[in-house]
Design brief:
By secondary structure, this protein is an alpha/beta fold. It has eight helices and five strands. Helix 1 packs across helix 8 and helix 2 packs across helix 3.
Length: about 180
C-alpha cells in the first residue's frame, strides 16, 4: 500500500516555477526542498546545458533515471522540483505524490521575462531558444504531465505562496479522504 505522504514531486514545463514553489512549500511544511536538476549537475560536475552539449540527451536521461532510483530509495518527506522531462522516469509515482504545475506557454514565457534575471533564465534553457519548437514541446507534454499527476494545479497569475497554500489545502483534503 502506498503511503499517503512520502515525497511531493513537482512536475511541469521548464520555467513554470517548480523550484520557486518547492522552496515556499518546503518552508511551509518544515521539510527540505530538493532540486533534481541541482543534484544532476552535482553528480555530473557540470551544468545541464553542458551535459547536453558534451554528452548528449541520452546520457542526461541515464543520469536522470539514476536520480529517480536514488530518490525512491533514499529520500522521504521532501518536496522535489524536477526538470521538464523528469516525468518520463518509470518510477515517478513510487517516489511520492506527483503534482503537475500547469500553465499555458505564453504565461510561462511572460513569467520568465518578468524575472529580474530573465536573460540568465532564458540562457540556461536551450530549448527556449526556438520559441515555436518550445511551444510545440509544451503542447506535447501537457497531456503527458496530466496523466502522470496525482494533482493538477493551475499556476497562472498566482504567486509561489498562493500555489503552495493551494497544494497544502489539496493534500490535506486528499489525506482526509484516505
Amino acid at each position: 500500500m502506498r503511503q499517503t505522504y512520502k515525497n511531493i514531486i513537482l512536475i511541469g514545463f521548464m520555467g513554470v516555477g517548480k523550484g520557486s514553489v518547492a522552496r515556499v512549500l518546503a518552508r511551509k511544511m518544515g521539510v527540505f526542498a530538493i532540486d533534481g536538476d541541482d543534484l544532476i549537475e552535482s553528480f555530473a560536475n557540470k551544468k545541464i546545458k553542458k551535459i547536453f552539449e558534451d554528452d548528449g540527451e541520452v546520457e542526461f536521461r541515464k543520469i536522470e533515471k539514476n536520480l529517480a532510483k536514488f530518490l525512491e530509495k533514499s529520500v522521504n518527506g521532501a518536496v522535489i522540483s524536477t526538470g521538464g522531462g523528469f516525468y518520463k522516469v518509470k518510477n515517478l509515482n513510487k517516489i511520492g505524490t506527483v503534482i503537475y504545475l500547469k500553465s499555458n506557454f505564453d504565461k510561462i514565457i511572460e513569467r520568465i521575462k518578468a524575472a529580474p534575471n530573465a536573460d540568465k533564465k532564458l540562457a540556461k534553457r536551450p530549448l527556449l531558444s526556438d520559441l515555436s519548437k518550445a511551444k510545440a514541446l509544451h503542447k506535447e507534454r501537457d497531456e503527458a504531465y496530466a496523466k502522470k499527476a496525482d494533482l493538477i494545479i493551475n499556476v497562472e497569475n498566482k504567486t509561489p505562496q498562493q500555489v503552495a497554500a493551494k497544494i497544502i489545502k489539496l493534500l490535506n483534503r486528499k489525506h482526509l479522504k484516505g
